[in-house]
Automatic annotation (TrEMBL):
Region (Disordered): 194-228
Keyword Transmembrane included in the entry's annotation: yes
Transmembrane segments: 9-29, 41-64, 85-104, 124-142, 154-174
Upper lineage: Bacteria, Bacillati, Bacillota, Bacilli, Bacillales
Organism: Cohnella ginsengisoli
Alphabetical keyword list: Membrane, Transmembrane, Transmembrane helix
Biased composition annotated in UniProt, kind: Polar residues: 217-228
Name of the protein described by the UniProt record: DUF4328 domain-containing protein
Keyword Membrane in record: yes
Length: 228
């Protein structure tokens, strides 16, 4: 449920990021067209994405990553990171430079080594870990530069919206791949559990079954004697 909500919010954020990027491209190509047709809508998009949706996504994402690690610790008793440890890796300043990629590298590595069906998802998660950190740093620097300038250049706005858009896409891909991997592991565990439960009554029935001739001799011990 929570992962589905996060996916929807990230898809919306990606769509708004793409719209912002397209607006900057139009501004760069033709200022008059931008002012006449795009500017009013672009302002609304920027207000929604920056003032509301982004912060809602951050809160939902932190809850989601906590729940992901609860599931990982349940599915893998020896998983090396707790839910609280994962939040610390992401939220603690400076330490997050190591913690953010470490969280996703650990998930990706575990997918690849502990579940043969999840090697593809594991490679995706591991492969996006370091680029995510680079994008977070670049997007933060660019956004702070835009805020400090009264009239930022078109090139800076172009770079900022592009970095934000790619960052949103990376977060969406991580959410999709991790959710898909956890669902696959959980489904596999449930199938194995049902199979083992179905096998137990059959084994008990086989153990309780007795040879027909042996049963008959118990019921009628003189039958063989009379025939003889």
């Amino acid at each position: 449920m929570l992962s589905n909500l996060l996916k929807i919010l990230l898809w919306v954020l990606v769509a708004l990021g793409a719209a912002s990027f397209l607006a900057i491209v139009i501004f760069w190509i033709d200022v008059d067209v931008f002012i006449e047709h795009v500017y009013p809508l672009a302002g609304i998009i920027l207000d929604i994405s920056s003032a509301y949706l982004y912060y809602i996504d951050v809160v939902i994402y932190l809850i989601w990553i906590y729940r992901v690690h609860m599931d990982l610790n349940r599915l893998y008793p020896h998983y090396p990171r707790t839910p609280g440890g994962a939040l610390s890796c992401i939220m603690v300043p400076v330490y997050s430079l190591y913690g953010v990629p470490s969280v996703y590298l650990t998930i990706g590595t575990h997918f690849q080594t502990e579940a043969s069906k999840l090697k593809k998802e594991g490679r995706w998660v591991s492969g996006l870990a370091v680029p995510l950190l680079i994008l977070l740093i670049c997007a933060n620097i660019l956004n702070q530069s835009v805020k400090r300038m009264e009239e930022p250049s078109t090139a800076l706005l172009f770079s900022t919206t592009l970095a934000n858009l790619i960052l949103y896409v990376v977060f969406l891909m991580l959410c999709l791949k991790i959710s898909q991997g956890l669902r696959s592991v959980n489904d596999s565990r449930n199938e194995n559990l049902h199979a083992s439960q179905d096998a137990v009554p059959t084994e008990q029935a086989d153990e309780g079954a007795q040879p027909v001739g042996w049963t008959a001799s118990i019921e009628n011990p003189n039958a063989t004697t009379r025939e003889a």
